[in-house]
Amino acid sequence: MDGSGEGNYVTVNGRRMRCGHTTGTCAAAASKASALALLSKEFPESVEILTPKGILLDLKTEERSMSEDAASCAVRKDGGDDQDATHGTLIFSEVRLVPSGISIDGGKGVGRVTRKGLDQPPGNAAINKIPRSMIREALEDVALTFGYKGGFSVTISVPEGEEIALRTFNPRLGIQGGISILGTSGIVEPMSEKALIASIEKEMDVHAAAGEKVLIVVPGNYGKEFSDSIPGIDDEMCVKCSNFVGEMIDHACELGTDVVLISNMGKIVKVAGGIMNTHSHNADCRMEIIAANAAVAGADIGTVRKVMECISTDDALDALTEPGLRERMCGIMMGKIQYYMNHRANGKIRTGAVMFSSTYGLLGKTELANELIKEATSR
After folding, report:
1. Please, are residues 197 and 246 in contact by the beta-carbon 8 Å criterion?
2. pTM (global) more than 0.90
């Protein structure tokens, strides 16, 4: 990947794909440009911003305006070749000079957090920690350049944000009134679904070619970290399947290798509902699935309603712990996970699963999980 503004690319399976930049990068760049305008009395046509990934971007500013004590401009979100609902959206930042400190808040079109369990506490604008840090660092750099000793008040807004948010899961997660300002690396690195699946299949091929008859599969880093705590399993044994549980099982059937899926509940709960692509863009239904299994486990209507109001799987487990239903519900859910994995495999391979929580630890195993893990680790 090079680092020249619009010239950022990654190569995925031989295909050159253009990167973009996140809403967080846009917010930081617009904030920097507005602060520069206030202190220099002239708006820059573009502004350089260093992303957490270490890539320096030169981003154009739009919709520029300035008054005695405030300046505002926008930077356009660019999803590159991985475009989502926010691609092309203008992210505005209005900056005001204040006596001291740096305050950051959301205006029109930026969501407001209403529930616990998200990056920001209830009441805060849905501007995540990394974008807040990027904004702060950009303004501190501007102040240092001009020898400015005062502070800044920043308001991030997205005029189209409320409408865009309706096409996301924000309302369901308890983020009301707009989109979230996101991004951990500052860069949107595209990877097509087809390319991701091909890379997963290739990794499985390598393990099978090494003589492994049972593959230890994890969706991502959380699963890998938990699997490391299982005796005999190490990093090199684990295959990452991302969200593509169904495609992973399909390819395992082609290879003739059995599989054990080790996953955080937040992902694998969807498999208990027959959902084989666990990406939130395709389906959520986590609370519906937990609530249904809780009801089968004996939960009363009040507990079921409480589960349905949760925004994270750990919250749902909390709701089931007090009435003593957590273990029973998880046991029923493991049976459903086993059913749907076996259904996808259609008798061609053996499948197993292990479900855990970062709060509660091990939650359950399917019938063959221990046997398959023993076979995988006895080589």
Report:
1. no
2. no
